[in-house]
Automatic annotation (TrEMBL), chain A:
Species of the source: Bisbaumannia pacifica
Keyword set, alphabetical order: Antiport, Cell membrane, Ion transport, Membrane, Transmembrane, Transmembrane helix, Transport
Membrane-spanning ranges: 6-22, 34-54, 60-83
A GO MF term: sodium:proton antiporter activity
Classification of source organism: Bacteria, Pseudomonadati, Pseudomonadota, Gammaproteobacteria, Oceanospirillales
Pfam families from the UniProt entry: MrpF_PhaF
Family note: Belongs to the CPA3 antiporters (TC 2.A.63) subunit F family.
Name of the protein this chain belongs to: K+/H+ antiporter subunit F
Location(s) in or outside the cell: Cell membrane
Membrane topology, from the record: Multi-pass membrane protein
GO cellular component: plasma membrane
UniProtKB/TrEMBL annotation, chain B:
Keyword check for DNA repair: no
Stated name of the protein: Monovalent cation/H+ antiporter subunit G
Organism annotation: Bisbaumannia pacifica
Region of interest called Disordered, as start-end residue ranges on this chain: 102-130
GO molecular function, one term: sodium:proton antiporter activity
Length: 89, 130
């Protein structure tokens, strides 16, 4: 039962990543691409969680935590750059 | 024995629900028509999906190893705190860049004060700098 759920979930997350790549390449403006990147790091955290469940190990959750923090900080930095034209004033 | 079967069912349900919510969020981001609509998908549905998935992982390792671990809860808490901040900043960026919006999107998207976009740093109105 858990194997089937893992496969279904993996398929859905990969389809979501494909949709994010579509929005990242097509997206007409800069904030669209930024939103696509922001969603992509959340989806990559989901992929890491699925990998941890698949391999039955907890080693990779530190990587998930790092991706969460760095992704948030980089999104905020690019937003500040787009808003003010400068990051540190 | 039946308790473990029940827990496996709960974990599987949470995993499938998380995957479905993540997919729905990304589908909304890819499919909707303007930026202000697209912002709704990832900030709400995807956050809920990743929360479901991390709770499923936490339950799984709790059942298999016998003791709870705070790590997944930490990631969930961090994502739930940072998602609204990111959405707010992205919406502000979209308003600042005056992105095109569909006719169904209501509201006036041109209401940022000049100090918020760094045009001219004005003194705070409460202080009275002259």
């Amino acid at each position: 039962m858990l194997d089937t759920a893992l496969w279904i979930s993996l398929t859905l997350v990969l389809a979501a990543l494909a949709l994010n790549v579509y929005r990242l390449t097509v997206g007409p403006d800069m904030p669209d691409r930024l939103l696509a990147l922001d969603t992509m790091y959340v989806n990559s955290i989901a992929l890491i969680v699925l990998l941890g469940l698949w391999l039955n190990t907890k080693t990779y959750f530190e990587a998930a935590l790092l991706i969460a923090m760095l992704g948030f900080i980089s999104t905020v930095a690019v937003c500040k750059y787009l808003l003010r034209g400068d990051i540190i004033e | 024995m039946t308790v473990f079967v029940l827990l496996e069912g709960v974990i599987s349900l949470l995993l499938i629900a998380g995957g479905a919510f993540i997919f729905i969020g990304s589908l909304g981001m890819a499919h909707l028509r303007d930026f202000y609509m697209r912002l709704h998908g990832p900030t709400k549905a995807t956050t809920l999906g990743i929360g479901c998935m991390l709770i499923a992982s936490m339950l799984y390792f709790w059942v298999t190893e016998g003791k709870p671990d705070i790590q997944e809860m930490l990631i969930t808490l961090f994502l739930f705190i940072t998602a609204p901040v990111t959405a707010h900043l992205l919406a502000k960026t979209g308003l600042h860049q005056k992105l095109r919006h569909a006719d169904k999107t209501r509201g006036k998207p041109l209401e940022l004060r000049p100090e918020e976009v760094g045009e001219k740093p004005v003194p705070h109105p409460d202080r009275g700098h002259g």
